[in-house]
Amino acid sequence: MNARYRMYLCRFLGLGLALIGFGSPPVGAAGNPADSIHRQSQKISPALAASVPAAMAALEKNAIHLVDVRNAADFERYHIPGSLNIGLHAIRTKSFLKGKPLVLVNEGFVLGPLADGCEALNAAGFKATILAGGLVAWKARGGRLVGDPFAMPDMNRVDPRDFLQESGKGRHLLIDASAGPPGKALPMFDGAGHIDLLNDKQGIAKLKKAMHKEASKPFRILLIYTADGKQDAHIQRRLVRSGVLEFFILQGGLQACEKQLSFLRMAGRPLDERKMTTGSCSSCADRAIGSEAQSTDSEEK
After folding, report:
1. Could you read off the pLDDT of 135-173 as tens digits, one per residue?
2. Is 301 domain-assigned?
3. pTM value?
4. Is 86 a domain residue?
5. CA–CA separation, 249 vs 232, rounded Å?
6. Cα Rg, the chain, nearest whole Å
7. Who's near 73: CB < 8 A, 6+ residues apart?
8. What is the C-alpha separation between 128 and 120, in angstroms, rounded?
9. Domain range spanning residue 209?
10. Residue 275, in any domain of the structure
């Protein structure tokens, strides 16, 4: 089992427990996973934000520890030169890190664990903040990255599991970029704006205007999605060509989120209701053997 798979397995199991085991109504009863996610709330203090320009200047002077908390495989794909790769859970065991302020880094979308870890570290005597906008903002502001240039566009893409973990917390500027009128969305997409980034010639201008209104919020995240994600690559290229660099795109769109929620609903059912048989069951095998035996008898006769 590789590191990336283990990471997603832990996240997915944690999300499932949060939805079906701790405080959320039973699936199929008074609520459902979508409602449970949508009710979550976690505000992050602006005081925990370190701006990209400030972090760049401090790193240049060797005045901070820039700590990339992603797994080793993702760090190897691309990272900021001079950053340290230390898992969030392991930072407090590194006493040498108390000598300078810490700036915690990931791609920039998953903020909940970073905020919790940041507050815990500060309570333990560290001086920790979070790089606002993460690696996406760092790259957009001209910061250097080392690694595989073909892998770097992936930092703008959000897995549906990460979105479900982070949704409902009021941190996202949600934009439905689908062509035509928006369809019916899941509860966690309530309040999303609609800007056709495929056909509307004024789409980029409208998007920039919406982004400008949110510019003063350090942890405000632009998340763009479509119904099925089939035009993600085209939209991403158009945004980059237009100079819009600080954004995230939901992989697979609404359909992918619905699929993940269906899985969680199934996981929340009693075991007897979610049992299934894969391959040939014993009764099917018995019938097959019986049929073969009958066929052999007929041939012998």
Report:
1. 999 999 999 999 999 999 999 999 999 999 998 888 999
2. no
3. 0.78
4. yes
5. 7
6. 24
7. 2, 3, 4
8. 9
9. 3-267
10. no
